[in-house]
Write the structure tokens for this entry.
Amino acid sequence: MINKDNLIERLIAQNNQKILLLVMDGVGDIPHKDFGKKTPLEYAITSNIDKLARDSVMGRMIPVLPGVTPGSGPGHLGLFGYDPLQYQIGRGMLEALGLSIDIKDGDIAMRCNFASADDNGIITDRRAGRISTDKCEELCSLIGDAIKEIDGVQIIIRPSLQHRFVVVFRGKNLCDMLTDSDPLSEGKEPLEVRALDEKAEFTAKVANQFYQGVRRVIKDLKPANSILMRGFSARPRIPTMMDRFKLNSVCLATYPMYKGLSKLVGMTVIDEAGNNIEELFQKYNDLHNKYDFFFIHVKYTDSNGEDGNFVGKSKIIEEVDKALPILLEKKPNVLCITGDHSTPAAMKSHSWHHIPVMINSDYCGADGAARFTENQCNNGGLGTFESKHLINYLLANAMRLNKYGA
């Protein structure tokens, strides 16, 4: 009997076909009552994507399971062909790897936000007004100088972008089975970090002492006078995309977390891929002949959705559309445009809603759709499928899968 879990790997054929996966983070949405009951994809003016849509096939993807809201880690793992239920990767480790921290066995990483709190420690803004990266660097330096170790555990702090930073605990007997301190909404105090296993009780104690120490250092430095901790994680073991799919792959992203995830699956990560969408797309052209699989990540569709900024999300989609001709200068054999999850602006959060997806190739067929929108994708030829199977369609359209059976 054939093991269906590795059937695709057994059918792999190698050739020179190029696959490009363009991820507009959190692009999926739901109709918004304040904008004519349209979604950002429907509201945005996207003449270039519309033209591509007419010769493409569309569908909707389930990122994890029906009704389950994914984080960015599971969402992207599915897009890369990994079952997010089998491979569980904490956000802290992804961020740490994305920042090129030298992770050692036994290290525990967490992803942190600077936040705003009132005099009683109640969170008033979970992102501290999205402070500048320069301010984040200044605060991380201040904390790093004040807190170097706790109970024999070395504390490593690295700034990321805006309000985000990473902390790594390095020492003995550490465990990542911990709850987050982020209450996920304003008007509450940060939660106490709790151990989910008795092996993690010491690490929980260190985490809570770290929070108290940080508060002593920055409590008077508004707006960023508190922190939220989440995504405690150790480094997992995961097979690479080359091992599984024989794809020489590359990541073109700006945010560290997505670089970290790409490193875990064996992608080459271009540290200076670009600071905007046009630069990311141009970098693809520069590297076109060097790789088989290109992952391009656009972040701000998601962050605008989380901020409830419907118009801002639509404008990012329009920026992608405007820059699309750059990608088409060296058009890949297979171009897929999708998201890792939905982030409805009306909800200001990730959601369980199915993700719109569009594939264009010489062999994809075509739905004859007028636009790339959620409703058009509902009627597309790909139907509705789990995102972990997207890689099958990409490989097939690139003629990289041999026939199964006689």
